[in-house]
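Notebook entry, structure prediction.
Reason for the run: the old model in the group folder had no record of what sequence produced it. Starting over properly, with the input documented here first.
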Amino acid sequence: MDQNRVVTVKNGLDCFINGLEGALTTLSDHSDFILNRHLSFLYRKELNDSVNSMVVSPFFPEEMFESIHRLDGIKFTIESVNSIEEAEKLLLSQVSKGIPTVVCVDTFFLEFFPKKNGHTIHTVVVSDVDLKQEMAYVSCSLPFQGTISLNKLRIARNVRSPSLNIQNKWVKCEIPFKKAISLSKEYVIAAFNENIVEMSKSNSPNSKVFYGIEGMVHFKDDFAYWLKNIQLQDTKTFLQNKYLELGFLVEQRKRYALFVNAAAEYLEFDIAELVVLSQRMAHKWDVFRNLCYKISLAVSNDLDKLVNYFHSIIQLERESLTLLTYYQKRFAEMNSGDKNA
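New structure, fully documented this time:
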């Protein structure tokens, strides 16, 4: 194994984003900017009559990939093939170019995974493969970093279960050249512009997928409705499911706060207010998530408190959107002044 290809993946709840960041560190000096800059919200309602159909997350991966391609010049696509042989061929084509590859696996077949009581989706980064030794070098957010049997990896990738939907699924990366992006005030403002678009999206009332601030309002209304209309035991399950789902969103809001803090030095005007606001947003999402779990343990009259607290998050997110729009206009005015000087 080539030790120069070793990828370190951060420990954390979101194995997909952490794995992607680990892979990106070998392709760009600014992997943190690329993945931290996204501010979005997604609420998916798959079945109108099921409490378990309310799913919240930061974004669809495909939409995040489109943004990365636009701003960073790196093209990611989620690919899947039916054949183990074809999957391995494609994996080797990536790692042979020095591109670590994020692949989906079933944890049941991975010896290093601590829990063996079921089949769970996980993502790992494959940075090198030794065909002679039949070994693969793998990193993931457990954390784990080391070699595993190539055959075990083949089996873990080739799961045909409809409930997991991961058969030989992997993230293909195409990058025009190493260190693709250059940080600048233009890059920061372009990122802010994308955040404005994401958080300002309009949603159809009949849609089952809701975005941005409007998506939060839809979620709040449905959240309040279910809390009032489901049975006690269902309320516990419902809140604990929200606790699990919100972990990914909390992590992304924390990442975004880091991005805003780092972005401040590239701008010619003060964004201290946004730095503080983004930190408060991350904190409030974290508190709301933990409240869901705490109240699920002893469901009481605190349910209204949850809804009211979420309303305060929406207000904070609106403030953030207003500030981003203000900075966008200020940057445009400064640019216009520079051109007329």
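Summary: The beta strands are 42-45, 54-57, 75-80, 101-106, 121-130, 135-140, 144-149, 169-174, 209-211.
The old model has been moved to the deprecated folder.
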